[in-house]
Amino acid sequence: SEEPKKVHVLLYAPDQPKLKLTKIATSKPDLITVTPKPLTDEELKKLEIEGGYKLDVEVKPGMPLGAFRDEIVIDTDSKLEPEVRLKISGTVTGPISVLPERLRLINVTSSRGGSGEVTLLVRGGKPTKFEVASKPEKLDVEIAPNETPTLKGRYRLTVTVPPGTPIGEISENIILKTDNPKATELKIPVNIFVLGAAG
Predict the structure, then answer these.
(1) From CA 84, how far away is CA 76, in angstroms rounded?
(2) Does the first or last residue of the chain, that is N or C, have fewer Cβ atoms within 10 Å of its Cβ?
(3) What is the dihedral of CA 65, 132, 105, 156, to 10 degrees?
(4) CA nearest 20: which of 36, 42, 41, 3?
(5) Amino acid 165: pLDDT
(6) Maximum Cα–Cα distance for the chain, whole Å?
């Protein structure tokens, strides 16, 4: 979360060596940028193609902690594929870690409900305040310290599916606000399958 991350993507059209890129947009333009560069003669020779681009994709500091899925949309002058959509996904880590990174529950029944836990680890054991900013409407979320004499900065986030929750999939994010200036927001994806009566 505090350092930029760069990756490279190759884009070319075998049937159109002089492909032109007319527009590039990202779902988070302030945090995800794309810089296209024509491939050098050496790169073209190595790849055995006649033309193309190397796209420098940079994820800047400031992304919310946790898993992310975003999109890059590239407009070209190709008649066959004038728009290219590129999925970009990853995990942002920082002074607070979430273990596991997402909460997945598959054996919850509507009649009984159920629960699952996620551990929040604060680097350096620094005391931290957490506040639930948003959550799936059907779920209850509680956060409590989970420290031991030797392990400081541990918190337990408990997600409860109340009995009587309608059957179906709950696939949303829990958003936490914190008082840590370097990790003001945490995003925890939740994927829960609520089943009918067992057997």
Answers:
(1) 8
(2) C
(3) 80
(4) 36
(5) 94
(6) 65
The pLDDT assigned to 64 comes to 79
Task: Determine the pLDDT at residue 199.
Answer: 43
> pLDDT tens-digit profile of 126-161?
889 999 999 999 999 999 999 887 788 999 999 999
Rounded Cα distance between 145 and 153, Å, is 8
DSSP 123: G
- pTM for the predicted model, two decimal places: 0.60
The letter for the amino acid at 136 is P
Residue ranges in the chain whose pLDDT is less than 70: 197-199
Angle 109-111-115 from CA coordinates, rounded to 5°: 55
Q: Hey, which bits of the chain come out as E strands?
A: 5-11, 21-26, 32-38, 53-59, 66-76, 83-92, 96-99, 103-109, 114-122, 130-134, 140-145, 154-161, 168-178, 185-195
Select from 115, 156, 137, 1 the least CA-distant residue to 64. Answer: 1
